TrEMBL record:
CDD domains per the UniProt record, alphabetical: HATPase_UhpB-NarQ-NarX-like
Enzyme Commission number(s): 2.7.13.3
Reactions mediated catalytically: ATP + protein L-histidine = ADP + protein N-phospho-L-histidine
Protein name as annotated: histidine kinase
PANTHER family: NITRATE/NITRITE SENSOR PROTEIN NARX-RELATED, NITRATE_NITRITE SENSOR PROTEIN NARQ
Entries under Pfam families matching the protein: HATPase_c (PF02518), HisKA_3 (PF07730), Sensor (PF13796)
A GO MF term: kinase activity
Main enzyme class: transferase
Span of domain Histidine kinase/HSP90-like ATPase: 546-636
Gene3D superfamilies: 1.20.5.1930, Histidine kinase-like ATPase, C-terminal domain (3.30.565.10)
Organism, as annotated: Nonomuraea composti
Keyword terms: ATP-binding, Kinase, Membrane, Nucleotide-binding, Phosphoprotein, Transferase, Transmembrane, Transmembrane helix, Two-component regulatory system
Amino acid sequence: MGRGRMGRDGTFAGYAGAPLRCLALAGLALLGPPLLVMTFVGAHAGLPSPAFFVEQGRRLPALARRLAARWGGVEIAAPYRPAPPPPVRDPDGWYRDGDTLFRSAFLPAYLARLRWVARDPATARDLAWMTLNPLVGGVLAGLAPALAGGGLAALWLHRPAGAAAVLLGVALGPRLLRLHARWTRVLLAPPPRQAPGRVARAVGARAAAGARVCASVVLAMVATVFAVAQTVTIGLMPVRLWPETVLGSRRFVSWRRARIGEWTGVRIAEPYLPEPPLPDPDPDGSYRLGWGPVGTVYRTRGAAVRARRFGWMIRDQASWRDLAWLFLEVPVAAVLFAVPAALIVGGLGWLCWLWVWTSALGLLTGVTWSPGDVLHAAVPALSGVPAPVAGLAAAAVGMALAPAALRRHALLSRSLLGPARAALLASRVDTLTSSRAQIRDAQAAELRRIERDLHDGAQARWVAVGMTLGAAEGLIDQDPEAAKAMIAGAKDMSVAALGELRELVRGIHPPVLADRGLADAVRTLAMDAPLEAEVRVRLPGRVAAPIEAAVYFAVSELLTNAAKHAAASKVVVELRHAYGLLTVTVADDGRGGAAARHGGGLHGIRRRLDGFDGVLTLSSPPGGPTVVTLEIPCALSSPRTSTSSGKDSPTS
């Protein structure tokens, strides 16, 4: 491909047409900003869909990729994730999007395509290319036609200089086409899938923590708005407006709980009591409630709902704990986030905004200022320190302080936003009641499966063995050869029946699990898996046998999913125990998009863990990776050593 393309570029026609091609690429670069504006405006219009305008905007990058291959000899693959399939109607006639049900396919398809374009990194890279291409690609492509055109215009003034400019533009044309194609590949090609180094991970984590600290300062102000709104509605119309305001605040607080857990790893459970049901109306159409602000009889359903909701809110301790947290967010943020946020914003502002501002002020006033002069006048102790160095140092210090500040804020928030003891016990009782019923049903189904397998498999074979031996007994005197053949067949059937019994026992409780423990049993699963699997174990002892069995079958299901559904090439299984918690992490490099749907394998694992008060956490963005974490509270016994092994690496 490259040699043929280069050969054509080396001809006279190739050199002569290169400036014209560069001119076309420069014009293409100028189309980027208007298309970016049209995409932004159309995406915010709401209809037909933001995904529609983003997809139409992809036509320009697609054309740039084709021209890079045709004119510059640089092949660029399309980096986009596959579009989501259309929603499928459930057997009961509903369309499902997560846990939400829809009667029409329009909204689930709309939301799926919106998530598709919003979460695809190629979308951001396309938008960045449209923004930067006029400054980079346009300049590169415009150089050759500018020289050639300027030279032609200058021929009548100074013929040698004009001819030299024309020749230079024609000579640079093919090279500029190749440079432009390489620049196009920088943003419009799929990024290489390689793990960042340790330093890059550390810098990225602290930069992300710094951005989250600055965002937390803004979110603290939003929390104050919700707190003030609740206070005002309590004083004005408590029965009508306060419950609605509390529900709005709960959505914000629940979102903050999720973000705190995502940013710091400190998970905060939902503490709210379930909403009580509305009683049936009396024969006269009125509703009688056990509690109300005025009375217990309500003539309309709306009044009864408002009174019941008001009583539910006012009795739930979580409502008041949320209100206290909303009021305390600003003072807590002032103590924890003020210093790192000021260092980050101030340092980056010193580097960027202050430099531009002082330069613009110098152009307007004629007075030459520099950021260093402002810095030294404001902080005399930093005299002699260059302004960029001071700004970078301040931002770095702020980012270094950010993770600790976020962690302390998460711990303080958990003390208020977590469930109270009564709510925790009530939730635990409900969970255990539900899980006990599920385990009872699962055990009954398992017993029926074992009975069916024994009846249809091993039992039938042993009956056939007995009948064959009886027939051979009758033939042994008359036809010894036929009797021997029948006895050999009975022997084969007995071996097959024994194999079926072993498979059945392995499905109930694998022998390797009882003999060698969970670590070696999981290693056996990894060795039998149809993909590269690595097992890392840090278990200083053994857990109870029921928990070992639950984890074993859960890991087996996850390995099967990684190979069958995720199209993964490598999976890492990690088992560790710390602070009374067994944690199992299964991470694969597959295509992602997994979900714990009702009736699926992940849902079955979650039901299995409910019996041990365990938790399953799933992270599976489209494009991968998929990380499944199982957490089970338990104790250990009989110390073991910590090991790490894989298919291609020795145990260490």
